[in-house]
Amino acid sequence: MSKQFYIIFTLSILLTSCKVQQPTNTISELDLKINSIFNESELPGFSLVLVNDNKVLYQKSLGYSKISSKELYKNSSVQNIASVSKTFLGVALMKAVDQGKLSLDDNINKYLPFKIEHPKYPNIPIKILHLANHTSGINDGDIYKKSYLLKDPNKEYPHLPQEFQKYITLIKNNQKIDESEFLKNILSVEGKWYSKDNFTKNAPGIKYNYSNIGASLAAYIIENAVGISYENFTSKYIFEPLNMPQTDWSSSDYKSNNMVTKYLKKGIPIPDYYLITKADGGLVTNTNDFGKYLIEMMKGSKNKGTLLSKTGYKTMFTRNEFGSEASGIFWGVSSSGNPNLYGSDPGVITMTSISRKNDIAVFFMTNLDLDANKSAMKSVIKILKAVKAHNWKHNS
Q1: Fewer CB atoms inside 10 A, N or C side of the chain?
Q2: Residue 255: its H or E element
């Protein structure tokens, strides 16, 4: 079971099984309820923001961004947001489509300096659309772990438990290489890590199989299509127009006193790391910035957005079903049509969701590891359900 599938599965079970929250009518009542949930949880800290298509309705941060120094988790605290980063990839891809730089139906090899084909289906081209809705047939597997790099690979971390030491040892041996080389090594027959196991048994376009490597490949294709780096493209067409000064790709060179410490368990810090494949999970931001982005996404869902054309937003948020799974363009889309995405990385749990019916959208992030704290997800869900149950029409 992939981590992304585990998160979605866990959230769906908890959202349907948790007791219905008594709605709150005032912000002070909601604050008290969330404070109570947090105080009974294992979460070190968190931040959330809730918006409509016009303004921030609610923003709250609790706990510590750094436990040892008792630095508070604030609305300005920044951390990487794992797979929720892919929502920006969806916007970037549709922006490139709007500009006429590429088409979702294009063969990916049109934009690559090396050839990629599904080894079991060489005559069926992988399209950009297949990358965007996770039906390319590209499989992450253990090879994806080569994307993780420690900021200080020469340091020892004796405070970490034995089971996590194995993971640290693994990524200590990873080498910093260019993303294009990383992708070629895995997906091209000329690559040194190439294996037929890097692809599923299904033909492109048929079956949903969540792929971080596929997402990274899409970002690389965008670069080649538009002629500038993915970082510069997203900065020019997303971060700058929305005034998101604390948002950037990868924490490898991010210099901010507001960077949180990530925790394996409450009080056990995880070493700083970053990703070669930034677009799939390496965005660093805070709820101050993300709130601005989420307002724009709300506008886009109502044909009022400014970053993309109406067609671009409609395509991005349209649910396409593949058996029991479904996807938009790098966004999940629920059966009720609500765009969403969830993320998890070492020391990180994130989620964002747009509720068309309630006319609100929320983003949540915390600095705690999911794998080592499965029960923490219940606290996250309780907080989100309390926010969802609140009478926002009374406060908006």
Answers
A1: N
A2: none
